[in-house]
Every structure is written in structure tokens, then in C-alpha cells.
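From the methods appendix. Each design record in this collection lists the discretized structure first, followed by the designed amino acid sequence. Records were kept in a plain field format so they could be parsed without special tools. The example shown here is representative of the layout used throughout.

RECORD:
C-ALPHA CELLS (1263 positions):
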């Protein structure tokens, strides 16, 4: 395999397409500095996949596109094509010739292609990687590569050998495998955590499932009772809506009649308005206004005519223009230009003669330079050949010395290797005992399980305490809302509230009463409306309060006096009545309020009041004023009885209930504080338990890590023992080869000495350059004479151009003056015509102004008459509009009545829609189904039948869900190498999916219950059932609808449902799904453990492969370095050493160099040339140890002197036997060994181009 051609299009300085044809041997690219030679190397690196902009000597990747010059614009893209000969099939592709192309656009887009087929950058890198071309491009030795080798660390030098040996692809595979192992370990930990969490959730979820099963049976009764109550309300609202629609229809008919009467009145008004003379008034007004405008315009025209006459008379007095340029002046300038033109031809002839003389002298000088260059070439060839033979003698001698030193080093290395082999075997035997485990791991596992169980117990207890706290908080919120509502109801005022701010007013009567609990309803019924009355100090304050109420129009107000002038005597008599409680004994109030209840007795119920009434009648005259009140608020007097139900609660009852709720609210607040304290203690215990569990888990993981570390130590010792054995075998073979090298070096020294002595006897060629100085002086004189003639020629041409421009300017100026004179004459004629026209207009205007003044006066008189007639017609419309207003008010009243009906209809419809929406949301029923199946005419089924059906259906649905649950239906196939995700992200899709499935199951349960209800014996009304037997003769199951009974039935069912506490309606489905999920995770854990073992085996295999490959590559590189170094450093010594021979995977490479006659070995202490030569020796050794099909070198010999250059060329001749070389150079000796030679130069427009090419003939290559 070798490179055949390279084509550059728009790449850096190669703006035009340029093609280089490479030869299998050595191809040199030469040219001056800055011509673009190194851009050829950059192009090769770029097309083979280089991605570093700095490596390509740029700031960004777009710098590789031709940026333009002063005479040439920038290009939009850069393209490079590389053709490779693959006839030996080294590249893994079925083509004998492979063309790789890469294109970069200025907008950042890139394109890659292999044989015209689009591909990726990775495809190009993978194609070339198997041929020894790594990602770091070690085959390209650029201008900075030698410096990188010199300053590289031991680990970086190891990278050069790894890339040449193809270890990098194995290392990438290992890194990828390690990443997969780390990701798999994260998945393993995550799955362990998930499995433990699911195990902790299964027990409480099972209890919730039992409660959910019981709740579903009760929910069936709640649904049936709620549906029947909703159906009853819907039927009642439909009947009310029908009544409202009939009333609305009657009011609408009445509104239509009144509307017709109103329309007739409006029609009569419009007819009268049409007969009014309003149009005549408008016409007169517009006529007068138009005449006034015309009058004003005529007066303005008169003033304008006078002003224009004045202006035109002033313009006629301006002076004219005079001519300053004549035709004689123009003719004189043209004649002067013609006379100067005759001298230009003579000057041109003189310039031609001077240029001919200069060319002749330059040709003679060029011929002399070619002759001198030929003589210099002969002398250089003789010197170079003599120096080459001398260097061969030195190289042969240094090779012999190096071979003898290498033989000694091989013997020492073999003895050291045998010693290392024994030590590694002993270390391996000592470490084998550490692979055994201990019993401490089982105790750690038991501690971890105990800690997890304690965490689960505390979490369960915290859930219970949290639920209790939430229940107390809900009760607190309900009590707070109730206290607020009762306070608002108590504080809501009426007409008496406005009197509370006056003097002598204490407030409301109810606010000054203190009643024994249980007697509030009796006292409120006895006082009646007086409980809301105003309480004043005395009679004067009461009269003042009544006056204020009358002045403020506050309505009817009742006033009670707090203090009485004389006490009542009847109270003593009533206290002695047995069986009843006097009202004054169960309350505390001012004397005036107590006087109101002095004649009131309180009984337990109506029976007690009826039994005590005969004793009251025996009191005599007092009986007429005595009242008996029961504790539930029923009042009995001698002639009046008040009682029943439906009355609202009094202010006294509301106040008592508010005080009771406030006390209960304080108790609940105290209980909430205690519950919160208990919950905080439990949470602190949970945190401590979790910390202990975490510590136990960390201890278990540390134990596992220690066991893994011991296993790794054993593996490393085993690998070192194997490496020591392999190294001993290799050194034994190297010792035999070193002995053979010493014998070959002895014969090479004798041959080189004989060749050098024969060539030194030949004569050296001569060089003569004495005649060149005279020709150079003659050429300078000819150039000076030519320049003087050219200056005289340009001066004459400039004078001719100046005279011709002057004649043209005079002619143009003369034409402008003539045009200005003609324009002045035309304007004078126009001005005279304008004066005549303005004079005629000024003479005709006075008569027209007098006529327009008369017309304006007449128009004003006509306008006054028309306005008088309109005022009389307006008075006739007042009576008609008054009648229209009365009809409109009547229509408005009817419309308001209709709107009120529509509002009530809308409210009823809104209420109906809310009921239907509730039925649809809560029960999933439409109106027709709701009324047909749950209406008041439908019999109510038995609760036991509904409960049994609901329980059977709930169990069936739970069994179905458990049988079809998929642990992870949306998840892809498990990949243990996939990167770990956060636990929340892993659980979120599962939780959402399970929730959606559970909601669907709950809806199916409700649908099945409805179907079960529909499957019961057909419901019929009471008219269709006779004697409790249906049409088939079977007894009927059900009873007639009773709203109160259904309300009580719903309350009982809801109370039972509330006693169950918080119910998870999805617990049955969640429990089944969680069990299936736990089984799935257990299987995944088993798969992960098996995959982890496989990945560890792969990593061990890759480590072993890389160790063997690197050991072999380093050994070969070291042998090659030992052979190359004596050639480049005759008499010196150098070697490659491993920094950590026992660790072949991480060891670095040190280079020691000791030139002949020096004691230093560090690279940093060498001279610049020696350091460059040492770097070249290392690279050449790598190239020889692991040869690549081609190498690209950019001025690697720039820092070498002639002797060292000869040694390097000797190695390059040897290297090109197996590899293709592409060399960028300035050295002539390097060019001489080339099979193909390209010359590159930079053109004047900044574009690089190939200016020459030489390809050696076949017979030259053979020689």
C-alpha cells in the first residue's frame, strides 16, 4: 500500500486545484520559505481525519479555507482528495484503489467520502487505523513533532509506540468496557435500592388493599342513594321550569301588544317631522355661508393682483450677463497641444533602444551564472561523496562498538530477568492466601437487614402519626370556618344596628343575656323578636333612640328598657309553681329583660306543659299573662300556641353554638401541637435509623471493595510473573542475535575503509567566477539609462494631456455663457405678459365685489325667515312625544317582569345543569339514564344485594389486573451497559403508568356496578306492581322512593365510609402491580450480576492482549534503536528503558543518550542538533519496529550539519525499502535520493503553485 496522489482545492494557499503524484519510493517537495510546502503536509493530515486546529497551524478549523489576498477574493470551501493504492489489500475494503475526500464549507459544514460515497469521520479513522495510522498521526513528522518528542514525558513516549503497534484501539475498547462497567454498577446499586424500597412498600399496601375492597362495597350504596336524590331534584326542577315557561309566554304576548301601540305613536311623530321645513333652513344657511366665502376670496384676489404688479415692476430693473471666453482662446489652446504631441514619438524611440541594450547585458550575465553553477555542482558532488565515504567508515566503527556493548547488555538483562522471574513467583504464592473471605461479611449483612427493618417500622409509624395530625388539622380548619360563619351570622345587623352608636344605648338584648346551656331555644322562643331589640338604660334613652330611628328612616325598631322604676310582683307567685322551671332562674339579664320573662315557665316537652297547665289555671287572673315554653322552642299561652319546624335558629342559639365551637377549637389546637411534637420525635428517630442503615450499607460495600482489591492484587502478580517469563525467553533470543550482529559489524568496517581510501586519491574539480563583476556593473549602467529615457517620455505625455484638457474646459465655459444669455431674454418676455394679465384682473374686481355684497345681505334675510318657521313646528311634537313616553314606561315594566322570569328560569336551568354535571362527573350518568333508572318512580333495591354484587365485581377486577400487569411495558430491552439514570426519573414513568391504569380500573368497577344494578329485577312504579308480585308471578325486590329515607341511607353509608379513614382507591391494582414489579427487578438483578462478571473477564483479556503487544513492540523498538543509534551517533551510546518494568500497562519509556566523548546522558543537556538527531533516532526506531506503509517528514533535517545529514540519509535509504517517504526539505543531498521531486513557489497573487517536477527514470532508480 502507498499514496498515489493528493489533490488540493482551496486548501490554505492552494487556491487553484493542484495535484501531486507520489512515487512508491521517496518523493521530495522543495521550494523557498513561505511557498506553502508545509500546507501539503497539513492537507495530508487533514484528509486523514485530523481534527485539531492548532495541529494544522490555525486558530479555528475554518482557517484551512483559502482566505484571499489583495488581488484575489476568499473561497467558500476547501477540498482535499487522497488516492491510496490498495492492491495488496492492506486496507479492509474491497477496492484496489481507495480515494478519500474531505470538504469543509465556510459556514462550518463538512463532508466526507470514500470512493465517492458519503461517510462519517469515524469511518475514515477506522479504515486507516488497521493500517498502522493511529488517531495521533505518528506517521507525520512535522516541524513541531521533534520538539514534542524531546519534551514528552515517559508516558507520552509510550503513546508513540502504542499508536505504531495498534494498541490504541484495544485501549479504547477497554475504556469503553470500563465505562459500561461503571454504568452497570450504578444500575446494580439503583436496582438494589428499588427492590428494597418495594419490599418495604408491600406490607402497608396490602393493608390498604383490604380497606379499599371494603370501601368499594360501601361506595356502591353511596352511589345508588346519591343518584336517586339527584334524580328527584332533577324531576322537581323540570316541573318548575315548565311553570315558568308558561308564565313567560303570557308576559311576552302582552309585551308584543304594547310594542305595536308604541310603534304607531313613533310613526305619527316621524311623519310630522318629515313635514317640517328643516331642509329649507339648512339650505338658506349653506347659501349664506357660500356667498360669504366667495366675498372673502374676491377681496383676497384683489390684494394679490396689486402685490404681483409691484413684484414684476421690480424684476424688470435687474442687469444682464456679459461673455468672458472667445473662440480665439479655444483655438490657441488646441494648437499648443498639437505642437507638444510631436515630441512624444522621439521619446518613445529612445526608450526602446535603452531597453534593448539592457536585455543584451542581462542575457550575457545569465549565461555566465549557469556556467558557474555547473562548476559548483561538480565540486559539491566530489565533497559530498568524500564526506559520505568517511561517514560510512565512522558508522561502521560505531556499529561495531554498539554491537559489542549490546551483547554485554543483553547478557546482564538476561540475568536480571531470571531474578525477576523468581521474585514474581514467590510474590504470587504469598498473595494466593488473601483470596479467602472471612465471616465478618455475614454479620454486616445482618446489621444492614436489621437497620432496614427499623427504618420501615419508623416510616410506618410516621405515616400513622401524619394521618392523625392531618385529621386534627382538618377538624381545626372546619371548626375555624364554623366559628367564623357563626360569628358572621351573629354580627349581621338589621335596622336596629344604626342605633347602637347613640347615647344611653347598651346594645342588643341577646348580647346581654347569659343562659344556662340547653335552654337557649326556650329563652329565644319566649322573647321572640325582642331578642333582637335594642337595650337602653331608661325611658328617656329609649325615646331618644326611637326619634333617631324615625329620622334615619331605619324602619321598625323595638326598644327594651334595662332598668325599671318598680319591680314586678308576679315573679314571686310563679316561682312557687311546681313541675315547671321559671325562665328567670335559667338566665342572667338586666331587670328590664327579666321583667319580660317574669311570666314565663319552661317545661321539658309538650306533655309536661299539658300536665302542668291545670295548676297554672288555678292561679286565677294571673293565668292570662303566663306563658309556658318547652326546651325545643314551642310556646303555649291561654289562647295562642306556637310551634312546629322550619324556623331558623335564634341569635342566642347561634351565640351559644359559637362559644362551644371556640372552646372545641382551642382543645383541637392543643392536640395538634402535641401531635406535631410526637411526629417530630418520630422523624428524628427515622433520620437516626436511616443514618445507621447508611453506615451499615457503607460497611458492606467497603468489605466488598477490599475483597475486590485483594483479587486485583493477585491478578496483577500473576500478570507480572507471566511477563517476567516472557521477557527471559525474549532476552535469550536477543542474546543470540547480538552475537551475529557483532560478526557482521567487523566485516562492514573493513569494506568502508577500503572504499574511502580509493575515492580520496581522485583530483578535486576547480571553480572560476572572476568575469561576473564586470557584467554586473555594465547591467547597472544600462538600467539607469533606460530609466532616464522612460521619465522623459512620461513628462512629454503629461504636458500633452494637460493642454487638451484646458481647451475642452474653455469650450464648455463659452457654451454655458451663451445659454445663460438666451434664458434672460425669454424671462423678460414672460414678465411683460404677466404684467398685462394682472392689470386686467385689478380693473374688473370692484364691480364684482359690489354685486357679491348685495347677495350676502339677501341670503341673511332668507335664513331668519326659515328659522322662525321651524320653531313653530317643534311645538306641535311635544304632545305626541309625551304620549310615546307613557307607552315606553309601560313597555319597560312588562319587559322587566319578563326579564325577572327569564332570570329565574336561568337560575333553575343553571341549578339543573349543575346537578346534571354532578351526575356526569360523580356518577357518569346522563339525564335520561339518571331519571329512567334512579327517578322517584323507580323502586329502591335492597342494600345487601348491592353490597354483594360490588364485592364480587371488585374481587374480579383485582384478579384481572394482577393477571395482566406488565412490570415495565414502555421500557426498552434491558442494557446493563446503559448509563445510570436518577431513581426519580426511573420511577416516574412507572408511577404515571400505574396511576393511569388504576384510574381506568376504578372506572370499570363503577361501570360494572351500574351494570349489576341494571341486571337486578326490572324496576317498576307502584302503579305497575300489584300485591308485591311482578308479571312473572315472583315477589318484587324493592320499595318505593322516600327522600328522607334515602338521605338517611346516604348519611349512614358515608358515615361508614368515613370510619374507614383514608382510603386508597387504587390499592388493589397497585398491590398487584408492585408484586409483579418486585419479581421483575429480582430477575434484572440476576442479569446484572452475570453481565458484570462478563465485563470483568473482557477487561482482563484486553489487559493481557495489550501487555503482550506492548512488550513485543517495545522489544522490537529497543532492538531497532540499538541498531539506528550507532549510525546517527558514531561512538556514542543510547538505550530505551522502562520506568516501571513490572507494570507493562502503565510504564513509561525513558531515553538515555551519551554521545561519543561526553559524560552527559540527559536530553536537555545536549546541543540542538544532537537533541534533534536523538528524536529522529527514536522515531526511526519506532518506524523500523512497526513499519507503516508511508511516512511524511517536514524538514526534519533542518537542524543537522552535513555529516549528520549524511548519516540520516543512510537510514532513510534503508527505510524506503519497506515504506513510502514524502519529505519536505531544503537540503540538496536529500533531493538527490528522491524518486520524484516537486517544486512549489508562491506567485505574486499569494497563491501556491507547482512550478516544476522531476521523476527519476527506471534505470536511475535501479542504480
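DESIGN:
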Amino acid at each position: 500500500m502507498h499514496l498515489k496522489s493528493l489533490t488540493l482545492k482551496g486548501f490554505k494557499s492552494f487556491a487553484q486545484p493542484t495535484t501531486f503524484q507520489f512515487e512508491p519510493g521517496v518523493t521530495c517537495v522543495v521550494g523557498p520559505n513561505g511557498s506553502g510546502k508545509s500546507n501539503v503536509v497539513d492537507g495530508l493530515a487533514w484528509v486523514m481525519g485530523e481534527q485539531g486546529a492548532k495541529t494544522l497551524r490555525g486558530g479555528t478549523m475554518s482557517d484551512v479555507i483559502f482566505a484571499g489576498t489583495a488581488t484575489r477574493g476568499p473561497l467558500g470551501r476547501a477540498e482535499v482528495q487522497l488516492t491510496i493504492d490498495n492492491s495488496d489489500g492492506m486496507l479492509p475494503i474491497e477496492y484496489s484503489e481507495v480515494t478519500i475526500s474531505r470538504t469543509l464549507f465556510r459556514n462550518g459544514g463538512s463532508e466526507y467520502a470514500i470512493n465517492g460515497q458519503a461517510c462519517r469521520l469515524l469511518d475514515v479513522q477506522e479504515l486507516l487505523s488497521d493500517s498502522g495510522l493511529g488517531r495521533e498521526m505518528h506517521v507525520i513528522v512535522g516541524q513541531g513533532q521533534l520538539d514534542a518528542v524531546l519534551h514528552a514525558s515517559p508516558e507520552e513516549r509510550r503513546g508513540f509506540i502504542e499508536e505504531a503497534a495498534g494498541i490504541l484501539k484495544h485501549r479504547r475498547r477497554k475504556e469503553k468496557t470500563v465505562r459500561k462497567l461503571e454504568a452497570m454498577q450504578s444500575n446494580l446499586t439503583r436496582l438494589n435500592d428499588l427492590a428494597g424500597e418495594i419490599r418495604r412498600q408491600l406490607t402497608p399496601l396490602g393493608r390498604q388493599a383490604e380497606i379499599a375492597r371494603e370501601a368499594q362495597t360501601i361506595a356502591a350504596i353511596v352511589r345508588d342513594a346519591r343518584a336517586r336524590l339527584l334524580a328527584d331534584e332533577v324531576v322537581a326542577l323540570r316541573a318548575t321550569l315548565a311553570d315558568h315557561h308558561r308564565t313567560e309566554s303570557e308576559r311576552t304576548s302582552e309585551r308584543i301588544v304594547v310594542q305595536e301601540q308604541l310603534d304607531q305613536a313613533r310613526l305619527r311623530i316621524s311623519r310630522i317631522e318629515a313635514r317640517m321645513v328643516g331642509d329649507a333652513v339648512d339650505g338658506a344657511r349653506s347659501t349664506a355661508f357660500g356667498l360669504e366665502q366667495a366675498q372673502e376670496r374676491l377681496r383676497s384676489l384683489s390684494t394679490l393682483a396689486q402685490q404681483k404688479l409691484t413684484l414684476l415692476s421690480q424684476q424688470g430693473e435687474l442687469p444682464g450677463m456679459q461673455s468672458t471666453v472667445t473662440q480665439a482662446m479655444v483655438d490657441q489652446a488646441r494648437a499648443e497641444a498639437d505642437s507638444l504631441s510631436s515630441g512624444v514619438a522621439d521619446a518613445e524611440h529612445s526608450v526602446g533602444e535603452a531597453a534593448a541594450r539592457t536585455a543584451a547585458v542581462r542575457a550575457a550575465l545569465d549565461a555566465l551564472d549557469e556556467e558557474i553553477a555547473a562548476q559548483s555542482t561538480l565540486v559539491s558532488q566530489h565533497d559530498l561523496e568524500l564526506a559520505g565515504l568517511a561517514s560510512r567508515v565512522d558508522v561502521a566503527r560505531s556499529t561495531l562498538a554498539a554491537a559489542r556493548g549490546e551483547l554485554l547488555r543483553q547478557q546482564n538483562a538476561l540475568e536480571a530477568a531470571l531474578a525477576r522471574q523468581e521474585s514474581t513467583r514467590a510474590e504470587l504464592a504469598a498473595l494466593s492466601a488473601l483470596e479467602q473471605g472471612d465471616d465478618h461479611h455475614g454479620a454486616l449483612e445482618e446489621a444492614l437487614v436489621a437497620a432496614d427493618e427499623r427504618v420501615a417500622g419508623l416510616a410506618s409509624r410516621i405515616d400513622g402519626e401524619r394521618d392523625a395530625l392531618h385529621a386534627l388539622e382538618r377538624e381545626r380548619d372546619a371548626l375555624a370556618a364554623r366559628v367564623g360563619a357563626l360569628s358572621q351570622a351573629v354580627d349581621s345587623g338589621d335596622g336596629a344596628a344604626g342605633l347602637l352608636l347613640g347615647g344611653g344605648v347598651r346594645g342588643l338584648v341577646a348580647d346581654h343575656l347569659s343562659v344556662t346551656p340547653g335552654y337557649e331555644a326556650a329563652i329565644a322562643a319566649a322573647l321572640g323578636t325582642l331578642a333582637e331589640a335594642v337595650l337602653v338604660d331608661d325611658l328617656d334613652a329609649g325615646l331618644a333612640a326611637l326619634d333617631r330611628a324615625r329620622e334615619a328612616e331605619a324602619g321598625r325598631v323595638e326598644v327594651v328598657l334595662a332598668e325599671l322604676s318598680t319591680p314586678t310582683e308576679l315573679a314571686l307567685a310563679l316561682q312557687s309553681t311546681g313541675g315547671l322551671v321559671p325562665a328567670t332562674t335559667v338566665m342572667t339579664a338586666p331587670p328590664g329583660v327579666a321583667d319580660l320573662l317574669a311570666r314565663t315557665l319552661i317545661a321539658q316537652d309538650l306533655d309536661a306543659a299539658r300536665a302542668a297547665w291545670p295548676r297554672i289555671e288555678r292561679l286565677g287572673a294571673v293565668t292570662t299573662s303566663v306563658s309556658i315554653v318547652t326546651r325545643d322552642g314551642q310556646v303555649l299561652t291561654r289562647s295562642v300556641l306556637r310551634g312546629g319546624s322550619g324556623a331558623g335558629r335564634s341569635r342566642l342559639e347561634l351565640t351559644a353554638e359559637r362559644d362551644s365551637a371556640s372552646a372545641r377549637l382551642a382543645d383541637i389546637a392543643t392536640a395538634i401541637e402535641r401531635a406535631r411534637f410526637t411526629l417530630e420525635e418520630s422523624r428524628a428517630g427515622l433520620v437516626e435509623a436511616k443514618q445507621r442503615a447508611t453506615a451499615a450499607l457503607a460497611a458492606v460495600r467497603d468489605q466488598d471493595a477490599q475483597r475486590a482489591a485483594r483479587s486485583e492484587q493477585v491478578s496483577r502478580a500473576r500478570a507480572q510473573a507471566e511477563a517476567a517469563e516472557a521477557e527471559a525467553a525474549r532476552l535469550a533470543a536477543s542474546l543470540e542475535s547480538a552475537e551475529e550482529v557483532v560478526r557482521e559489524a567487523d566485516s562492514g568496517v573493513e569494506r568502508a575503509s577500503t572504499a574511502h581510501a580509493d575515492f580520496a586519491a581522485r583530483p578535486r574539480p576547480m571553480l572560476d567566477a572572476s568575469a561576473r563583476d564586470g557584467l554586473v556593473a555594465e547591467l547597472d549602467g544600462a538600467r539607469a539609462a533606460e530609466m532616464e529615457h522612460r521619465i522623459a517620455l512620461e513628462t512629454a505625455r503629461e504636458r500633452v494631456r494637460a493642454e487638451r484638457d484646458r481647451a475642452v474646459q474653455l469650450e464648455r465655459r463659452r457654451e454655458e455663457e451663451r445659454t445663460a444669455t438666451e434664458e434672460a431674454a425669454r424671462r423678460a418676455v414672460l414678465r411683460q405678459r404677466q404684467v398685462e394679465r394682472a392689470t386686467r384682473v385689478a380693473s374688473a374686481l370692484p364691480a364684482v365685489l359690489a354685486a357679491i355684497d348685495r347677495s350676502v345681505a339677501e341670503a341673511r334675510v332668507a335664513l331668519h325667515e326659515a328659522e322662525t318657521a321651524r320653531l313653530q313646528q317643534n311645538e306641535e311634537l311635544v304632545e305626541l312625544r309625551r304620549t310615546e313616553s307613557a307607552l315606553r314606561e309601560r313597555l319597560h315594566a312588562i319587559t322587566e317582569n319578563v326579564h325577572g322570569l327569564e332570570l329565574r328560569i336561568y337560575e333553575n336551568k343553571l341549578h339543573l345543569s349543575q346537578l346534571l354535571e354532578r351526575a356526569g362527573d360523580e356518577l357518569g350518568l346522563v339525564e335520561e339514564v339518571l331519571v329512567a333508572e334512579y327517578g322517584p318512580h323507580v323502586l329502591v333495591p335492597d342494600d345487601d344485594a348491592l353490597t354483594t354484587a360490588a364485592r364480587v365485581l371488585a374481587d374480579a377486577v383485582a384478579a384481572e389486573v394482577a393477571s395482566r400487569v406488565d412490570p415495565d411495558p414502555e421500557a426498552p430491552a434491558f442494557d446493563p451497559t446503559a448509563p445510570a439514570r436518577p431513581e426519580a426519573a426511573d420511577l416516574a414513568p412507572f408511577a404515571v403508568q400505574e396511576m393511569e391504569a388504576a384510574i381506568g380500573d376504578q372506572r370499570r368497577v363503577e361501570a360494572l356496578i351500574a351494570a349489576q344494578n341494571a341486571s337486578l329485577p326490572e324496576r317498576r312504579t307502584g302503579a305497575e306492581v300489584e300485591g308485591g308480585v311482578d308479571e312473572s308471578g315472583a315477589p318484587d325486590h324493592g320499595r318505593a322512593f322516600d327522600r328522607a329515607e334515602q338521605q338517611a341511607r346516604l348519611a349512614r353509608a358515608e358515615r361508614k365510609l368515613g370510619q374507614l379513614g383514608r382510603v386508597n382507591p387504587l390499592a388493589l391494582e397497585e398491590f398487584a402491580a408492585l408484586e409483579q414489579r418486585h419479581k421483575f427487578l429480582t430477575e434484572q438483578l440476576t442479569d446484572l450480576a452475570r453481565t458484570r462478571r462478563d465485563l470483568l473477564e473482557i477487561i482482563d483479556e484486553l489487559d493481557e492482549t495489550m501487555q503482550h503487544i506492548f512488550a513485543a513492540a517495545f522489544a522490537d523498538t529497543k532492538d531497532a534503536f540499538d541498531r539506528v543509534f550507532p549510525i546517527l551517533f558514531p561512538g556514542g551510546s543510547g538505550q530505551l528503558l522502562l520506568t516501571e518494568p513490572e507494570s507493562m500497562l502503565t510504564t513509561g519509556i525513558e531515553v538515555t543518550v551519551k554521545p561519543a566523548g561526553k559524560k552527559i546522558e540527559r536530553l536537555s543537556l545536549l546541543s540542538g542538533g544532537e537533541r534533534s538527531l536523538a528524536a529522529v533516532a527514536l522515531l526511526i526506531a519506532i518506524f523500523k519496529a512497526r513499519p507503516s506503509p508511508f511516512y511524511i517528514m517536514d524538514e526534519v533535517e533542518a537542524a543537522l550539519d552535513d555529516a549528520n545529514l549524511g548519516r540520516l540519509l543512510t537510514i532513510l535509504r534503508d527505510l524506503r525499502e519497506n515504506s513510502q517517504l514524502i519529505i519536505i526539505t531544503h537540503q540538496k543531498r536529500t533531493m538527490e535520493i528522491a524518486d520524484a521531486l516537486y517544486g512549489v513557489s508562491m506567485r505574486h497573487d499569494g497563491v501556491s503553485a507547482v512550478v516544476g517536477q522531476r521523476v527519476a527514470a527506471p534505470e536511475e532508480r535501479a542504480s
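APPENDIX NOTE: The two ends are 24 Å apart (CA to CA).
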